[in-house]
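Schema walkthrough. Field components (list of strings):
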Amino acid sequence: MNELAPFRDARLAQSLVAEIHRTTTRPWTLMEVCGGQTHAIVRHGLDRLLPEGITLIHGPGCPVCVTPISLIDAALEIAARSGVVFCTFGDMLRVPGSQGDLFSAKAAGADVRMVYSPLDAVALAGAQPDRPVVFFGVGFETTAPATALAVARAADLGLSNFSLLVSHVLVPPAVEALLSEPECRVQGLLAAGHVCAVMGVGEYEPLAAKYRVPIVVTGFEPVDILQGVLACVRQLESGRSEVENQYARVVRDRGNRAAMEWVRRVFEIVPREWRGLGTLPASGLGLTAAYRRFDALERFGLVLPRLGEGNECQSGLVLQGRMKPPECPAFGTRCTPEHPLGATMVSSEGACAAYHHYRSPAPRT
Amino acid sequence: MAHGGGGRLMHELVNRMFGAVFTNPILDRRHDAAVLPASPHRLAFTTDSYVVHPLFFPGGDLGSMAVHGTVNDLAMSGARPQYLSAGFILEEGLPMETLWRLVVSMGAAARNAGVSIVTGDTKVVDPGKGDGVYVNTTGLGVLEHALQIEPQSVAEGDAILISGDVGRHGMAVMAVREGLSFESAIESDSCPLWEPVQALITAGIAVHCLRDLTRGGLAATLNEIAEASGKRLEVQETRIPVRDDVRAACGMLGLDPTHVACEGRFVAFVPEAEVERALSLLRRTSAGSGACRLGAVAPGDRGEVILRGTLGVDRLLAMPSGQPLPRIC
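Field assembly_structure (string):
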């Protein structure tokens, strides 16, 4: 049960910190892609242990945070339809759309259910054949295989009352979008270990070469992250830009081929809107023609409007690593976990939530 | 609705079930109100309603929780729990066997906690208007000492003790409610807390504040005390006792064990000089056998809780917001 203990070991972490200090001769800016890593960094104060010249900026790797408002609004609209059972992962419940969130929809009488697996939604559809059951498919490469499996299962069972509101996005296209920005400050990347556990590391090779950035596939515990930082800094200090796998205890170079096969069978690669980043080509998943009958937008006759952030939320800048959460004028005042302006404040992987949760506010003046 | 109409059926229910299980000289008089002897001491008075779902979970049920929750609130004010009232709201269609199991469990919990259930009420609501059964208990206790046990008594330099490991109750309930299966069964920590509190008070420990860990877990409890006292509480993360299976289950769901509910744990604020004696007193009780020192009250007047992390970096232990939600990945 305690297999993670070595990766939280204080002594090992301290020796890695010392090694990072010895290795660093110049300032470097690294981005950790995944919100889970951001939370570990802020929670354990890893950024405060690093040499002053090393800046960690937080990437867009929080699936809840990058789900566009238009899709949250679509979710709210579908959930409000008569008879609908709307199933979602817990994180999505508090994410604000332009008019409230799924929690408030539930309070207003919608049948919104929190599920732990997309297959739970399929089981519900099987148990209640007279009610439309919709699953909100959110997430990166990590959750897409389970959603794919659920759709395939629904097809096998002939469940015509099951449908999927698809918001699956892919990490490498977002990483490329950030790296290709002319003002991009990122010199090294800590890639998200669990995403690579599914997709493998191959997709990062051309990015590392094209943008000349070291990319280190990294885990989520303090020791993982410090090892990832050290590997990145070593490469930068010696002028290398390679793909390296710190998280080899989980990630195989070729990923999980069975999982990817399910994704390929059910989904095709489509352009998707990312909250804060805009519409990125070939950056998300949509149902293939063979499964399109399960598309909730089509089923409920909805078309996604093109809407920007409707309020003063600056999460776009945060998700691109161009603003630290405390620099936002609304942080902790007009935007709190109880009254969020954007998803980054409520998601368990959101950068704003991490700072609000773990960092003491500036001394009162 | 026959049981709620005040007729013969209800009379039978009250007599047979509640009367038989909760029997004591005050209740057995079956009058409109319980008549209690006056006490020369200060009294503590509290009420709470219990709406937990599912009704039964590993290590407890709604009935035992309805006793423990209220007697523990009394104990946290330094009062010896004496009397409880019990109000039941039953949804029509609730199997009598289910009610019987809850009532028996409640009676056993009351006897174990040394309290008498001296008055009660039953209402039946239409199907769909309740979640099987809701229970309200109100408790009365006596303070047989002169201590002021409250957040305002917390003083700089006080040590912060905890009576045992955190997070078991919340994970036990969540596992059943959400149909999650873990490798090992996590049982609720629900239990009465007067015994360890009494051990401290009768030994003359200058207890400054007590608070049980319920919804919102350790994080909420410490933040409530920090806010009410205006003090800065500093806690060592490595000292927070969390069982491996609870930590693993929390890790899987993306939950913080310090946010997860307990029903049989409390924190105690005592002068630093009395820490060793207080801990050995607590550890001799069954509910306090896992007691340890978490941290101390530091200089500062911002009413905040600071957690010294495993790597030596301080961070805020924030008040949890809303119910804990499992994460996507």
